[in-house]
Amino acid sequence: MTTGTLIILDHAIALLCAIAWFAAGITMARRQAKPALALLAAALLVTLIRVVPVVVLAGRGWWFVQEKVLLGLPMLAVAAVAATVIAGHRLRSQAMSGQRPEGIDTAGVVALLTAAYAALASFVVTFLIGYPLTLSTALITVAVVLAGALLTVRVLGTPDANDANDANDMNTVEEPDTEPDPDVSRRRFLGVAGGVVVAGAGAAGAGLSVWPADAATDDGGGPGPAPRAAVPVTDLRGPDTPAPGGVRREYVLTAQKTTVRLASGHTVDAWTFDGSVPGPPVTANQGDLIEVKLVNHDIDDGVTLHWHGYDVPCGEDGAPGVTQDVVGPGEEFTYRFRANQVGTYWYHTHQMSHIGVRKGLYGTLVVTSRDRQQAVDDAAPEQLDLTLPVHTFDGTATIAGDAEYVAAPGTAVRLRLINTDSSPHRFALAGTSFRVAAVDGRELVEPGEISRTGLRLPAAGRYDLVFVMPSTSVALALDDAATVWLRPQAGAPDGEASTPDTAAWPDLDLLTYGTPAPVALRGATADRHFTLVLDRGVAMVDGSPAYAQIVNGRAHPSIPDQLVTEGDAVRFTVVNRSLETHPWHLHGHPVLILSRDGKPSSGSPLWVDTFAVRAGEVWEVAFRASNPGIWMNHCHNLPHQHQGMMLRLRYDGVTTPFDGMPMAGSSHGH
Ligand code: C2O
Ligand code: CU
């Protein structure tokens, strides 16, 4: 069973458990002893069953169960035992006497309902707080459960009901000395529970104030900040000249609102670069200097340009409030960097990107090696190199460009797939076998030929597919619908590419694809190791509490910075406790995938800038801290990023003059 399924199962059983205890308590309050007894038995059974998914989940990782093992289950166990002891024997004697009791049995009902509160509280803590559990959370939770019990005593123990109870006891109990006076025991309970609530609240308050809550940095087990000269991020800019033999590629990209006509014929109000979606393609040969002047015409929230997956100097990274101020309407900013990396990338605004990118502020960035470019020029007719960004407008995912291309049989075809959306897309290539030559711009080692295989492309990710054009048509399916056709000649029939059931094809697992090759980083012991536990939970977002997307229990900007030193081998363990997919993206560095769910990556070394961590998965990745700066490290489901799932990786000694609050009225920079 996948960890994601176990998490759902655990949620379901936890809810069922709370419901069973409530049902038992309410039924007893309605003085129906037999059904209440049955419900008590059922509640006990579900409580025992609760242990099963927790034990199995614990095997998947402590992160998945910490709050259950340390708080939820012990609290529930104590309450359940107390309820069974207190209510159980009362219900049994009531049931055996065959008479409906005249008054409510306060102690029994309170005991059952307290178990219900404990069951509910353990579910709520899992759901709203998650990992890590803090002492103050634990104390507050126990205090709340006891306060619930107190309140229940108050509500149930009205004078009337009590008098009836007292009268009842006087008449029927033969030896009043051996039975505690219910009034006394109620008072005693009120006193004890009240005391515990007050103590719990006090301790929680104290815990909150002493808890090392606002550590500004996490050093990942490495040395803390060392005294060294501060380097402002504004000094970390790109060179002003191309590498020898390269040329200067100048672009001006104007961000502006435009009405765009979609292929479907619909028009949408888009935010564009130069009036087009995607924006103008930025292309270069390796070694060229890319110089892009960004002009903001009328995007009120402001814009920046982030070169996704391209390891530019930090000052060119386009992170508003960190590497630059946001570019407001009427303003401009010029980016300069050398095209050192070959491959398929993209650019997008990083300001309010959950809106800006969705509305169209993105484009493609493709860098070819000079040799390859020469080959393309020399043999132009036999090459077809298509850059195919997919983007969702109006609820419809569309691939930019034409719906049909002609490629003579024997043509070397390269399809550069780019996912500019916040959720994954599934691609499939029908009518030919192919190779995945590159992932996130980086070439794989000896990728094998595959066919009838689905390709799940994470949000923000890229795959380069290569194949030799056969003499029959080829279809690229997007989310299992044929979307782009390549035909050996104009008008060629669809042929066998027309009807494949691509949805039934298995997905390619990149962790086992291609040929292994030694990578120094793989064996290196990590100088720093950071664990990122991704979940949903209550946290502050934009100054108010929200059901946020959280990392280690917090939301941006209160997640501690990760501190690294230049040269460090850094490791991330990324754990997804939630039920959503989180495409994790570190700026400025490719990461090497080490393992997923404990299974080591066994194919080609896999270097990516974005990896999709699905529900319940645990990924280990590593990278070398070789690009000084302050780098955003976030979920590339951009609404998640906006809801808090973002932090910063900061090199020791690098500072930013920007305040992280780029524009009045808008939120922190993203
Ligand atoms: Cu493509 Cu910070 O993102
Ligand atoms: Cu996410």
The total tally of domains equals: 4
Give the overall silhouette.
Answer: elongated
Strand pairing plus helix content: what structural class?
Answer: alpha+beta
- Provide the low-confidence segments as ranges: 159-180, 209-213, 661-670
Query: What helical percentage do the residues reach?
Result: 25-40%
Major β-sheet annotation: 7 strands, mixed
Each distinct ligand? CU-O-CU linkage, copper (II) ion
| Number of beta strands | 34
End-to-end distance: 37 Å
By DSSP (H or I, 4+ residues per run), the number of helices equals 11
- The average pLDDT is 90
| Gyration radius, in Å | 31 Å
Instruction: Please state roughly what percent of the residues sit in beta strands, choosing from under 5%, 5-15%, 15-25%, 25-35%, 35-45% or over 45%.
Output: 25-35%
Question: How would you describe this protein?
Answer:
The protein is of the alpha+beta class and 670 residues long. It has four domains: 3-209, no CATH class; 217-235 and 517-655, Cupredoxins -  blue copper proteins (Immunoglobulin-like, Sandwich), CATH 2.60.40; 242-377, Immunoglobulin-like; 379-508, Sandwich (Immunoglobulin-like). It contains eleven helices and 34 strands. Strands 22, 23, 25, 27, 28, 29 and 31 form a seven-stranded mixed beta sheet that branches. Strands 1-24-33-32-26-30 form a six-stranded mixed beta sheet. The chain has a six-stranded mixed beta sheet with strand order 12-11-14-19-16-17, with no helix packed on it. β11 (383-393) and β12 form a beta hairpin. The longest helix is centred in the N-terminal third of the chain and has 32 residues, at 66-97. The two termini are 37 Å apart. The protein binds CU-O-CU linkage and copper (II) ion. CU-O-CU linkage (C2O) binds at residues 306, 308, 348, 350, 460, 585, 587, 632, 634, 636. Residues 549, 582, 635, 637, 640, 645 line the site of copper (II) ion.
